[in-house]
């Protein structure tokens, strides 16, 4: 059941040397491939990083998060940037009509780096994390890294940026579960918003 799986999930940052088979990697990638996206645009590429030297370099780019080097598999979620000529800003103007003018004025490069395409990769990543866990593989999301440096290291074309990294592996040490907020703290019904 999905909730059992979610209950088991926690960020693991200490992986064993055991390699993940290509069959399982394919299963994880398939879970990402089947994700929904706005307009079914599928604005992503999934970079499979299984070269240890590259993984070590990436751990440095991720502000020296050394634990990353214990993983034998990183998946780098990359997103394509929808250009203005293809209506790249239209979705945000529609979502925030009161900010239409500001969105239009925003510097092109800054806008493209912050636009919503980036967030869509989190859906694919979430599926991947669960698909991995089904196979006894733990993971941790990584957002804390230098985006431009990673793009360069992976030879990404200019219209793609790496948005998230997920480190996968068989656990060596599984830490204590962190406490989650209760349903009462995070849910409201209808227009009865509660802090
Ligand atoms: C989008 C995202 C980015 C994250 N980036 C990092 C990161 O750069 N480094 C890290 O050690 N953990 C990172 N985490 C893991 C969080 O710290 C972790 O999910 C949170 O503490 C809750 O713990 P749990 O995953 O065990 O439930 C990230 C998690 C998410 C969802």
Structure characterization notes:
With 195 residues, the protein is of the alpha+beta class. It has a domain at 31-85 and 117-173: NADH Oxidase. 39% of the residues lie in helices and 15% in strands. The protein has nine helices and four strands. The protein has helices at 2-8, 22-33, 52-61, 90-95, 100-105, 108-114, 117-134, 147-153, 183-186; strands spanning 44-49, 73-80, 138-142, 160-169. It has a four-stranded antiparallel β-sheet with strand order 1-2-4-3, with helices on both faces. Helix 2 packs across helix 7. The protein is globular. 24% of the residues are buried. The model has no long low-confidence stretch (mean pLDDT 92). Bound molecules: flavin mononucleotide. Residues 10-11, 13, 65, 140-144, 164, 178 line the site of flavin mononucleotide (FMN).
Can you lay out the helices and strands and say which pair or pack?
Layout: H1 2-8, H2 22-33, E1 44-49, H3 52-61, E2 73-80, H4 90-95, H5 100-105, H6 108-114, H7 117-134, E3 138-142, H8 147-153, E4 160-169, H9 183-186
Antiparallel strand pairs: 1-2, 2-4, 3-4
Helix pairs in contact: 2-7
Bound molecules: flavin mononucleotide.
Amino- and carboxy-terminal Cα gap: 31 Å
Q: What is the C-level CATH assignment of one domain?
A: Alpha Beta
Q: Main beta sheet, described?
A: 4 strands, antiparallel
Q: Low-confidence spans: pLDDT under 50, at least 5 residues?
A: none
Side by side, the strands of the main sheet go 1-2-4-3
CATH topology of one domain: NADH Oxidase
Please tell me the overall pLDDT.
92
Overall geometry:
globular
Estimate percent helicity: 25-40%
- Could you tell me the strand content as a percent range? 5-15%
User: For the record, what is the CATH homologous superfamily label of one domain?
Assistant: NADH Oxidase
Going by CATH, the architecture of one domain would be 3-Layer(aba) Sandwich
